[in-house]
Specification:
By secondary structure, this protein is an alpha/beta fold. The protein has nine helices and nine strands. The longest helix has 26 residues. The protein binds thiamine diphosphate and magnesium ion.
Length: 288
């Protein structure tokens, strides 16, 4: 599916009337559009709560919705495992986290299923959907994801583990996502290294929005954007690299990842349509 905005998906839905658009039926496009719009509306509501001092923090996923709905529709909540970045609201909605769950986290309620109000908002967690709670320190999620994927392999291989069928599925994969800025940290490269050495079934999604707060990507990533020839992604030639400008290209690559049970990286370009977080007042801007 071309494009990554709400308007692009709405236009694709019109073109698909009575047929398919790039392999997606009209109903599938409408379902994707509803999730994208829901994600944007929950962001808007949280920003309103923040401005009313009812929420103490807000992290927006605006601009990242299309790729994350595409990812979520090809993964399975409660079956695969998830270490989503803080902008992954649309992925979590697609997996089955509800707007109420998100708003409970936003106001730090004790009924918040992610952490009982102990974590910051958008620090995703859901026991039933296989979303383990994460740290606020960016990139630590990559190490957790690789450990999780290694556990999948061990459950698969060691047949003596009691109840192994109820604890792990043979074709489960682990999803982890990260921003362009966080890929500069050592944990990212450590996790890629281990995933490749052990051939672990991990999907890395890099959401490159061109900035890490105020630092543009070309100030900390060789070659500039993650898509650029000679950019950061080709620096690890042992990991199959897929550069996606179009969210619709994701699933095919990821199906291949599942079939081969090997690490896969995808880089997508995103334009965050909000501030970095509720504590910053400057908008993220596209570098190009
Ligand atoms: C280890 C660590 N260093 C710094 C921070 C502060 N911090 C939070 S978000 C952020 C920017 C990360 O940029 P990027 O990975 O590109 O994600 P984006 O916010 O652009 O989506 C930083 C530096 C942190 N949370 N953890
Ligand atoms: Mg960024």
């Amino acid at each position: 599916m071309k494009g990554s905005t709400l308007a692009d998906v709405r236009a694709a839905g019109r073109r698909a009337r009575g047929g398919e658009h790039e392999g997606l039926t009209r109903d599938e496009l409408v379902a994707a559009y509803r999730l994208m719009l829901l994600s944007r509306k929950v962001d808007d509501k949280e920003i309103q709560l923040k401005n009313q001092s009812q929420a103490f923090f807000q992290i927006s996923g605006a601009g990242h919705e299309a790729v994350l709905v595409a990812a979520g529709r090809h993964l399975r909540g409660g079956y695969d495992w998830f270490f989503p970045y803080y902008r992954d609201r649309a992925l979590c909605l697609t997996l089955g986290v509800t707007p109420l769950d998100m708003l409970l986290a936003s106001v730090g309620a004790k009924d918040d299923p992610a952490s009982g109000g102990r974590q910051m908002p958008s620090h995703w967690g859901h026991r039933g959907l296989n979303i383990p709670s994460q740290s606020s320190a960016t990139t630590t999620q990559c190490l957790h994801a690789v450990g999780c994927a290694e556990a999948s392999v061990i459950y698969h291989r060691v047949t003596q583990i009691p109840d192994r069928e109820t604890r792990a599925r043979d074709d489960e994969v682990t999803y982890v996502s990260i921003g362009d800025g966080a890929t500069s940290e050592g944990e990212f490269w450590e996790s890629l290294n281990t995933a490749c050495v052990k051939k672990l079934p991990v999907l890395f999604l890099i959401e490159d929005n061109g900035y890490a707060i105020s630092v543009p990507v070309d100030a900390q990533t060789p070659g500039g954007r993650h898509f650029a020839p000679g950019g950061a992604l080709p620096r690890a030639p042992h990991v199959p690299v897929r550069r996606h400008r179009l969210p619709g290209e994701l699933p095919d690559a990821w199906r291949r990842g599942r079939l081969r049970a090997r690490p896969q990286r995808s880089g997508v370009r995103a334009l965050t349509l909000a501030t970095e977080s509720g504590t910053n007042t400057c908008c993220y801007r596209c570098a190009t």
